[in-house]
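Re: duplicated header lines in exported structure tokens

Our pipeline writes sequence and tokens for each protein into one text file. With two proteins the header for the second block appears twice in some exports. Here is an export where it did not happen, for reference. First protein block:
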Amino acid sequence: MPQTSQSPKPGSWRSATAGYYHSLALKADGTVLAWGSSGYGQSTVPTNLSGVIALAGRYAYNLALKAQSPSGGGTLRLAMLPPGTNGLPQLELTGPAGYAYLVEGSTNLVDWAPRVLLVNSNGTTRFVDPGETITLRRFYRAVTQ
């Protein structure tokens, strides 16, 4: 099976993940390195893949999450913070000020439901998801309105 010979240098990567006989590294500049078995193309990084903020390796495929730029430019970031004092999920949205963002939630990355509409007046805003109780898996995304 074909293998790549490229592997990340220490300190040059942000995170790493592995699938079935292959590995991936997310470099600090948002590009991806892959090595190992590539029987299904799982170690072949698409040309011009950049702006990646997270990776997941699976049996014979991988997932790359790219940053979304708001319509006004800049970078939009939605980060999980430690739970609030009531144990509910707390998130922080950072992006260009003056825009409204719809934060949506999902338990399966397919079906998305609106959670809250935020107006980001100063570049960073935090919120607690009051509708969330004890879901084992919850994913969030922010969409520019």
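Second protein block, exported in the same file:
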Amino acid sequence: MLVTRELMSLEEKGELESSSEPQEVVTEETPAEDTDNHQDKVELLFIDGNDERIAQAAWTSSTIELTEDRKSRVAGLVHTLWKSGHTSPFEHSLISFRLVVNNSTHIQILKHRHLSINCESARYRRYRDDKTYIPDDLCEEWQGLLLSATESCWKLYHRLIDDHEELGLEKARAKEIAKFFLPMSTQVEMFVTFNLHSFFHFQKLRNSRHAQREIREVAQKMWDLVEEAGNFRHAMEAFLLYKKED
């Protein structure tokens, strides 16, 4: 897993500072160069939950009241829960992202069944923007060829919709057919919500050296944004500490 930050020991960290109230986050991850519009994008929208909520879920059999003594035990409990495979308490916290990703990454994300996903639809209206992903590790000549080919596909997409009457098609049907002209480099917008358990599962599979570069980079951006928010400091430590190596 390509997480750049090293684990810090619990003794080196301050007191847990998080709220159980839903938290709105407006931090957007942008490509290295703002002028490059052909990279996938990740935006963290909301976080609802934190380490304390995980502990409260685990303490349901006794009481969920968070006394000062119990707060001091949150970190250890969260580590114990994850290490022992008692993961249901992690499912009570939610994380939502807005993504703009290429179709290949879009399809791979859809394979994760324990996510809530809404995707931009081009069936009921045409795409708002001609969004295209261009791999930045492709040489400049072939980047240009891919962009040119994709722009030709977008022109045919719009032309079919605009000329639907001449082609004897209803506009709704023309929009359905026009999508077949678009290549895998087409980017679509997604609204994706994980619970924390499903987020860690996604990270294990997609933030891995075995994953395709594009979805690996999306997963890393997600991780960085959630880590920066700080809600799940102990849970993220536990995930890294006890995960099996690739």
